[in-house]
Amino acid sequence: MEALASTVWQWWIVLWPHVLATAILAITIAASAHAILVKRDTRSTIGWVGLIWLSPVFGAIAYAVLGVNRIRSRAGQLRAGQLAVVHELQTAVPTQARLSAAIGPDHAPLRSLATLVGEVTGRPLVDGNQIEPLVNGDEAYPRMLAAIDAATRSVGMASYIFDNDPTGKLFAAALARAAKRGVAVRVLVDGIGSRYTWPSIVGVLAGQGVRVDRFLPTNVPIYFPYANLRNHRKILVVDGTVGFTGGLNIRDGCWLAHEPRHPVRDMHFQLHGPVVAQLLEVFAEDWAFAADEVLVGDGATPESNADWATTNAFAGGMLARGIRYGPDDPDIGRIKLVLVGALASAQKSVRIMTPYFLPDDAVCQALDVAAMRGVTVDIVLPDQNNLALVSWASTALLWQVLGRGCNVWMSPPPFDHTKLMVVDGGWALFGSGNWDDRSMRLNFEFNVETYDRDLAALLDRQISAVISRSRRKTLAEVDGRSLPVRLRDGVARLFSPYL
Predict the structure, then answer these.
(1) If you write DSSP's letter for every residue of 83-150 in order, what string do you get?
(2) pTM of the model
(3) Complete domains list, the chain, with CATH
(4) Residue range 333-360: average pLDDT?
């Protein structure tokens, strides 16, 4: 027995380097094959394959940790098999004659954009909507509270942040009153956003008899703005007929008349018409995922909404469409295609307001191409950002757009959280999404596109009013930063895909 053990040991001493080399080779081939098959960017693929082969073991480990898109994989796994909620809105789809009258002939730029967004989203552009912009919580919150108090059947509300503060308590009380009247009330708060104040509003709502749930609860520290897979959507649908969406969270800082310590400017929108059904689709899917409850009745399912467009259409004359997107999107992502398509369709002007501006190279190039074609491109950013790392990283990439003719304007305090895009005074985009990778690929978002010249002109004037009191950012200013500041900003930019 001892002789056999000795022989085995001797053979192992001879063979183990070959076994180890074979294992390393197999891991290297497997990691390289994964990068070649999955990575879309050729430069990224070459870089990862080179690292994997030039640094055996270390390269494969680095690729497994940093190179694999676990955000999209996990999002796909989380949402896999979930029943899609789709409302029948065929009776609200505009005719070709209506499209020509409202947007332009078949090959007009905005008609092409409408075709693109339809292909990207798989949802119809619907007619008969009324959309009203509401500035700050001062205009939006009273409207939202009044809608909740007028509810007779259902209230579906989703918010990234819902603070337990004076404003949050007003909403909690309104929701509780609705629930006591027999209204089916459901509130969805993000797992991170529900923890910005302590104690959480979730306990307050539950204690008052409101059905409430959290989207992907997590043990991440209370305030962690860079967490992934967050539900960043802001949606309120009352009785299936009136909707609210935009950039507003539920917190006292957005109600400027309350004179909060940290005031935040923002914009929300009140919607009537068939597009509200598209808000409801997204809320119903998110609620089913988080609360494990498929909504039936109360205007929440296709069966109960078979005649939705017929009975609630033509609240106005606006064409609109909801755009849902997030880390479960295929490939490049829906919103990036929409933004690039909108920039490509622009003939005269592009106006953008966003609190966080960290676009990737493809989006920067689309902005540059628009400016170089003679389109006036105005980008409005807050002069004092609430997230220092984002501000530093954003400054480090501004040369990419300033050097090609885009105009960058820095709006004065208070911090402006508004998210708007207007093209040629005829198309507008609003919602929860920012111009950064966090919104475009890491979190779940919801925007609305509209084709209405009156609304677009109104939003254009509001952006112009902000520009009139803003400071212009120049390429000379960006290039003139001191070396320590440029290094700081450059290091922050390295983390831009995750900020």
Answers:
(1) PPP----GGGSPPHHHHHHHT-STTSHHHHHHHHHHHHH----EEEEEEEEEEHHHHHHHHHHHHHHT
(2) 0.86
(3) 2-68 (no CATH), 95-324 (3.30.870.10), 334-498 (3.30.870.10)
(4) 95
